[in-house]
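Researcher: Sequence of Serine phosphatase RsbU (Regulator of sigma subunit) follows. Predict its structure.
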Amino acid sequence: MADGPDTPHLADVRALLDADPHGCALACSVRDTDGTIVDFTLVHLNAAGARFLGRPPDELVGRTYRELWPETVTDGTLPRYRQVVNDRAPLNRTVYYDRATVSGHFEFRVVPFGDGFVARFVDLTKLTLGPEASAGVHLYDALDAAFDGFALLRAVRDDTGAIEDFTREYVNQVGAKLAGRTVEDLVGGRIRDSDGDTPLFGPLCQVTDDGEVWQERLTAPGTAQVWEVKIARVDVDVVAVSYRDITDHVDQQEQLARGAAAVHAAAIRTDALQAVTAALVAASTPDEVYAAMGTVLRPSAGGNGLVVLLAEDGRLVLRYHAGYEPDVVSRLRELPLTHPYPAVRVGTDGEPRFLRSPAEFAAEQPDTTTAISGGGRRAWAFLPLSTGGQLLGALVIGYARPRDFDAGERADLMAFSRLAAQALQRSLLFQAQMSIAADLQRTLLPAALPPLRGARHAVRYLPWTHGADVGGDWYDVIPLGPDTAALVIGDVAGHSVTAAATMGQLRNALRAYAVDGHGPAAVLRRVNDLLLRLEPEAMATCCYLELNLADGTVTGVLAGHPAPILRAGDETRRLPLPPQPPLGVRGARYHDTALELPPHSDLVLYTDGLVEDRQYPIDRGMDDLCAAVRSAPAGDPHALIDHILHAGVGPTPRRDDVAILALTVDTACGGRPAVHARRP
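Model: Prediction complete. Tokens:
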């Protein structure tokens, strides 16, 4: 480098870099014997740069680039820095790293300086939507949490000023997932290098030059994926692109539109279709669907016999029958796909068959030794049970007299079968999901809570959702020592199998970190890091209390969760724990708060469904709860919970799951184990 490390010129540069609020670094070239630059040595790093890199300067200064960031050596970074020094040409670059030695979304400005360079890097993840002094929300964290894919692109122009490509300066996590790539792969790259001649290149150029917003639905060639894309100019040569995969939404809209049109047209032709529709829509389980077919569809269609055959394991299996003779039913119990019975062909090729007489029916099964009798019927409609591209089986309607099946009647019967198939598929899926939900609910919550020496506890879990939905509320009591234990209650956002699975992961992680000897803040900090790695889109609240029943203290953390209620003597109040960020917030910090836990006191932990919903303010619900705890019987946690649930606390009717964990400190236990809490 032209200036030595102690020259006044270099000292001034160091002072200038130290005054910069963003990261700044000064590096000098490491040359081979032939003068080729083979590496760079870090000469100076300001305090902001050290914070961004998460390491003190004395661990970094004096070491080479290859030593400090070996994972990025092969990504083209070193040649770019070498070009800056050799060509004396500044470099602007946006990169995203998620690696062991460096993690973040950076904007680099690199300029030559002597035999080296000065690099200024801005950690874009620290940009906020409000002033830093007022703890504004991090802009890129907000964009990463967006439902839609989102990208910022900067135009690359040729010597004539024409746009030849675009560089990705930012892509959020959802956008990268929709593209089937990672953020690190995309940021800093050009769209034509990775996507070829994308159909969006023309609109991108148009919006960049004229500033008019462009919005369209695009269908990807070869995949039939439908994307809703919006492009807007946000700065000179910078455009924002938001995009969403709406394939399922479009498919659902089209299916609903087709179904509605068919139902409407058929309803005009016959009032019977309305009765069938109402009956099938109201049916939730397969048995209810079959009952609707037998009591409504069969008479509405004019038939005197009905059979439902479903495809299972390479055969058609009889799942419902009405009006058929016992000997015919016994032959229909199970049909191989090679049998000539007309329903078999319909159940495999999806094409309806209408047989107008016994002669046509007999012609379908010429071998009388294997033929299945038509019983007392003289005409048949064999209809496919097909919906959403899936063929479930066949529906057979038999008639007492021959009939012609004109076009209108055939249209009505196909409408009947489509409605029946949709209802049946929905009910089968509902039944499967109910089974999964029930299994999850049983396995993810503790079967029993351990006894505590010096305290008694009780718990209730009140699910609000029905059917396949599973709540994300959980609770736990974790023994930590002879006189210490952790009380935990929390709530994962959402009602789904995914929310329940996330709840199970969190509960297990909390137990593991707690038993490992970490305090409340350390436990939640580790669980938060784990959640961000495993489920970056998930969010959860949690109240974690560590009790020391020997010295009468409690140490706790509220991670976005409502405060527990403490009743001690004549005083009932919220436990004074400061609110802290919920789990799932990047960069969240947690701190312990230690409080006194008086003897003979009652402690109530709960989830927010007990005290609030969209129409019921939480402050009002908390007041309700304090009043209920104040007037509840003393000395029995079970009676305390029962009193709360019958005292009109919170919204009525409830619109969310509720978990309540009550603890009574009982120093009269004399060191004997307390009674087991009942499972809700």
